[in-house]
Design a protein that fits this description.
about 25% helix, Aminopeptidase, globular, about 30% strand, 7 strands
């Protein structure tokens, strides 16, 4: 079954650099969206490599504490690794309760801006071949498919689609990021297609049943 629920954008979300204090929230999401989550030690190692890695978290207000100091919880995170002028988007994850609320778009704007600041001329990532929603989202940032990694996802044997975006230092790409930022302020959900059922992802809104068969 696919999700058909229309959901409002999470307009109060803010994206900030990931710090160790965020790891409890990050790991909570890891354990509901991935069958083989990263360990705390791996995140700590990644955060310590500031020369060529950048990680960010999306925080959203939670509870009754009023501005300007509301309680904020981690609702998503993303990371990017630099390798010889190229950026590899290592992870993009959003808590299932906040899928289709433009959180992933906010995270991508942030990590691609970081990649540009680090001098990246191109960026790449892998995505499941059946994850059409994510592919559509990445396409909005200029990523295009260039190949397949067979059996890349060991837990299912599913292939990965390799996607690349080029010309990150160009004015065209800067304009694309500006357009994405503007889109984030508009009402509506994310640019992704409806979610597909994935057995290990827990708590998705609007997915009431597994597909038959």
């Amino acid at each position: 079954m696919v999700a058909s629920l229309s959901r409002p954008a999470l307009t109060d979300a803010v994206v900030v650099p990931m710090r160790r204090r965020h790891l409890r929230g990050v790991l909570a999401i890891e354990h509901v969206v991935y069958p083989r989550p990263w360990s705390p030690a791996l995140f700590v190692t990644e955060l310590g490599q500031r020369r060529d890695r950048r990680y960010v978290v999306a925080l959203a207000a939670h509870g009754a504490r009023p501005p300007p100091w509301p309680r904020r919880l981690v609702v998503g995170y993303a990371g990017v690794l630099m390798q010889v002028g190229e950026a590899h988007v290592t992870t993009v994850a959003v808590h299932p309760r906040h899928h289709r609320r433009k959180v992933a778009s906010r995270l991508l704007v942030a990590v691609l801006a970081e990649a540009r600041a680090l001098g990246a001329e191109a960026a790449t990532l892998e995505v499941r071949v059946n994850n059409r929603g994510a592919q559509r989202l990445y396409g909005g940032f200029g990523f295009v498919p260039v190949g397949i990694r067979p059996g890349y996802y060991a837990e299912t044997g599913e292939d990965a689609l390799i996607m690349w975006a080029h010309g990150l230092q160009s004015e065209d790409f800067a304009a694309r990021l500006r357009a994405q930022r503007a889109r984030l302020e508009a009402p509506g959900g994310s640019s992704g297609a409806p979610d597909l059922h994935v057995p290990w992802v827990q708590g998705r809104v609007g997915l009431d049943a597994a597909p038959e068969g």
